[in-house]
Specification:
binds phosphoric acid mono(formamide)ester, alpha/beta, 340 residues, 2 domains, Rossmann fold, 5-stranded parallel β-sheet, single chain
Length: 340
């Protein structure tokens, strides 16, 4: 199995996703070192903070004999300009066009994290930074979370659902919007829904009216679900959604029609603090034993109560661990260790 780039799992054939998940499950049983990536260097560019993504990619390279370098533009590295055709007389000293090209001459593959930014969703949804890197780097590229997708998180979510549920097809997956003090990106909720849809699950998106995901992303979830024999529904009744659910994935995201207007978005969100996963809600899941998922980091007692995170439902540490194993599988497929 070889992969040239990983921008979104919906770009990958079903068989490739299945093979990556199988390989990750196998690697999980083999935590010890190998030397498949000896002499290989992975560059990690973080335009935004990270704990899991950074640590798990660095460890994945180390575990297989390779090395990772981490670049944080604006922190000991020139700030990057990302706008096209702009006169660069502001703070940013280096255009992403040159930065991508230069890094591509040094490393064997690149990972890039660049969240949605700017004043309008119409602009942010174009995912300019990850596309600029993809066009200019000239080496294999992994999306480490962009405006639209977080494919490695989605793969880890799928592996966790397989581990927790055995055969996830036909079971109910609830994506539960949660209140949060800041408007967060939609890459994770979309990627998690695509992951569940690809497993043939009944995906239920519970969100307050107005917090709809991008229509193209909804179409992507629907198309994956239709192929896998699953379904997608949207509801504004969280309690009804979690009743009988096999997995509840909590995630906050910002209202896209108020993107770039955080004060208005916060005002619209006021009064929605009850959109939180409590032990009472988890007791109402299938047999009272539904799995609780979240990509982390998570705000305790804001998004989800202590009793859930510390209770039998929580799969969040498995999800985080699985980031490491799916990324080992991705890197081996990308850098030659798992060649055809
Ligand atoms: N889930 C996730 O991507 O975590 P980090 O933001 O810490 O990398």
């Amino acid at each position: 199995m070889t992969i040239e780039r990983l921008l979104a799992t919906d770009d990958l054939p079903d068989g490739t996703v299945r093979a990556l998940l199988d390989r990750a499950a196998e690697l999980k049983q083999r935590p010890g070192a190998g030397d498949e990536l000896a002499g290989r260097v992975l560059g990690l560019v973080f335009m935004n903070p990270s704990l899991r993504t950074r640590a798990s990619f660095e460890v994945a390279m180390l575990r297989h004999g390779g090395h990772a370098i981490t670049i944080e533009p604006g922190r000991g590295v020139w700030g990057f300009e990302t706008r096209v055709g702009v006169t660069m007389d502001g703070d940013a000293a280096e255009h992403v066009f040159e930065a991508a090209g230069v890094l591509g001459r040094y490393v064997d593959a690149l990972g890039v994290r660049a969240f949605a930014a700017g004043e309008s969703w119409a602009e942010a949804r174009e995912d300019r930074v990850i596309r600029q890197f993809a066009e200019r780097a000239g080496v294999p590229l992994v999306n480490m979370e962009s405006a639209r997708r977080h494919p490695c998180q989605g793969l880890a979510d799928a592996l966790t659902l397989r581990e927790r549920l055995g055969e996830p097809a036909g079971r109910r997956f609830v994506l539960a919007w949660a209140w949060h003090p800041k408007p967060l990106p939609t890459a994770v909720p979309v990627s998690a829904s695509i992951a569940a849809a690809r497993l043939g699950m009944e995906v239920v998106i519970a969100r307050p009216p107005g917090w709809d995901l991008d229509p193209d992303d909804m179409a992507a979830i629907g198309s994956v679900a239709a192929r896998a024999g699953g379904s997608v529904q949207v509801t504004d009744d969280l309690d009804e959604a979690v009743a009988g659910a096999h997995a509840v994935y909590a995630k906050s995201w910002g209202r896209l029609d108020l993107f770039g207007r955080p004060e208005e978005e916060a005002a619209a969100r006021a009064g929605l603090r009850d959109w939180r996963i409590t032990a009472e809600r988890m007791e109402r899941t299938a047999g009272g034993r539904g799995a609780f998922l979240h990509c982390l980091p998570v705000r305790r007692n804001v998004v989800v109560d202590d009793a859930v995170l510390d209770g039998p439902w929580s799969a969040v540490l498995d999800q985080a661990e699985n980031r490491l194993h799916v990324q080992r599988a991705v890197l081996l497929a990308m850098l030659g260790g798992d060649g055809p």
